[in-house]
Write a structure and sequence with these properties.
single chain; 11 helices; 9 strands; 312 residues; 5-stranded parallel sheet; 14% strand; globular; alpha/beta
Length: 312
């Protein structure tokens, strides 16, 4: 398959074949991170700008490491160090960066649609690293990659996404991705954190938390997005944990081969108990590892996929 897309902005714009091609490429690149010298010259001479205008640890570092593993030069820019704090518009900032001739720009922004705006106005490739409450395509791709690696398939699996669905871009991208790949996706959480019309995205609302976890092949837990809530939409964190947390009692009800995922950061004792986060069902750290390989694959494909002989 030949990669033809200029940008990676959301899951909806990717076909099943393109997603499978990304996985195939990522699995092929993953072993680079296991080598004594974790670097290949594949993208030597390429420059990647990481424009992160929202806080991030895992995603930003993952993109940075992915670039360096392929020998690309990466430049990270945070909101506080950008000219946006001086009143410059996002487009003007991006066009000035483009004038310095980078090859790929990775954007995280608090406003939904910001990466799409830049993609329409820039000639270089744009990757969406999370925009508001809209989308987080690379997180969904690495989640699906982790499930496929562990289960051997996605088609036909029951996937339960539990937590603050209304404010989660990860939930939206995962619903789009897993349903596109043939899984049955259900969502559960407090009614105050469940957006109206979520069924239109292809998910089923399960009001009973115990049913949501006991019937699932894959459980994706989400933290409460306090930074996106004008007020806390549940009485207390203790009550949330009792009603919607994956605690030790609920952990005993899940399938023997069920997987537990979490995009991070996790809040232990709230949406997930330590027994669940650190137990044999958890693939949370596998998600982090796969995130590097997945983002390496996107850089490689967007850069033209010209394979260096030293990759193999």
């Amino acid at each position: 398959m030949q990669w033809t897309k200029k940008d990676v902005l959301d899951i909806e714009s990717l076909s099943v074949d393109e997603i499978e091609f990304i996985f195939e490429t990522a699995f092929g690149l993953k072993e680079i991170s296991e080598r004594p010298i974790k670097k290949v010259p594949t993208l030597r001479g390429q420059t990647i700008v990481l424009l992160f205008l929202e806080p991030s640890t895992r995603t930003r570092v993952s993109f940075d490491i992915a670039a360096k593993r392929l020998s690309a030069d990466s430049i990270a820019i945070a909101a506080a160090s950008s000219s946006i704090v001086k009143g410059e518009t996002l487009i003007d900032t991006a066009k000035n960066l483009q004038a310095m001739k980078p090859d790929i720009l990775v954007l995280r922004h608090s406003s939904a649609g910001a990466p799409h705006l830049l993609a329409r106005n820039l000639d270089i490739s744009v990757i969406n690293a999370g925009d508001g409450m809209h989308a987080h395509p690379t997180q969904a791709l690495l989640d699906m990659m982790t499930v496929k690696e562990s289960k051997g398939r996605i088609d036909g699996l029951n996937v339960s996404i539990i937590g603050d669905i209304a404010h989660s871009r990860v939930a939206r991208s995962n619903i789009a991705g897993f349903t596109k790949m043939g899984a049955r996706v259900s969502v559960a959480g407090p009614p105050t954190m469940m957006p109206a019309g979520i069924e239109q995205l292809g998910a089923y609302v399960v009001p009973d938390m115990d049913a949501a976890v006991s019937e699932a092949d894959v459980i994706i837990l989400l933290r409460i997005q306090k930074e996106r809530q004008r007020r806390f939409l549940f009485p207390t964190e203790r009550e949330y944990a009792a009603s919607y947390g994956l605690n030790a009692a609920r952990l005993r009800r899940i399938k023997p081969d069920a997987l537990i995922l979490h995009p991070g950061p996790i809040n232990r004792g709230v949406e997930i108990a330590p027994e669940a986060a650190d137990g044999p069902h958890s693939v949370i750290l596998d998600q982090v590892t796969n995130g590097v390989a997945l983002r390496m694959a996107l850089f490689y494909l967007l850069a033209g996929g010209v394979r260096d002989a030293n990759v193999d």
